[in-house]
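Here's what a typical entry looks like (N-acetyltransferase):
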Amino acid sequence: MSDLPEVGTRVSLRYRLPAGETPPHSDVVGHLVDTGATVRVRTRRGDIVEVKPADVLAVRVVPEMPVRTGDIRNLEHAAALAWPGTEHAWLGEWLARFGNGSTRRANSAVPLRFTSYAEIATVADWYSSRGVPALISAPDRLLRIPPGVPTDAENLVMATDMDVAVPPAADLRVSSRPDERWLQLYQREVPVEVLTAVVDGEVAFAALDDAAVGRGAVTEAPDGTRWAGISAVHVSEHARRRGLARALCTGLLAWARDRGATRGYVQVVADNTGARALYESMGFRDHHRSRYVRAEDLLAHT
């Protein structure tokens, strides 16, 4: 059967068993991870079922499993540890991060569990003592933003499982710190101390073909899942549309897999259609959204 959906699609697949078995066929529900010489389906438990294309009898697309609030909390916890700024503090179950104003992500608090507006006031005081406004990164379902409160920079968080090993490009360079050339190619004025910061994890900086760079981080969620976060991906304009971004990200995932990561995520500006298309083609799927909101705007609505 040749009419298979694209890799990453959740399907119900019926396939032929070896001759003599009873019943003569079986079924598997999961995500397609390969549709080449061998059809591979990853089940919800993480098992890989391999089927010859000629043995596929029928396939249908099935809806994605709903993302639970606990799933969002676990991913956001791991992601916050992966980009903590140069100073961070746990304020109850909020992680406040400060990076001297460099990037929103490193200068915002993440409400991993919200109970009252008193926590927002505590967060505001923490940032006020550092002379900066309090910015909150508000993920879906972890903090409800009242109608009328302005938000900014909505991000789409995409996630994938990392069951199929893909070898990195032979000329991919990975190091624990960004060198001068990496920083030149990145083209953003983000201090090295912000880029290299991580809590209870490990970071890596990859470069490919002297034209593409990216950052990877491995951190652990409260449920024990080790997550691989990809960020700071940039390809020089003259080298785009050559597959460098895909090869670079694949290499970072391979690096993270070697360190025990089983799931990966990216955080993409919601209207960046090019980045979304790339990650979708790599098997990433929408997980949840997050946006930034000022603490003073939230407190004004109490």
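The chain has a mean pLDDT of 92.

More examples are in the samples folder.
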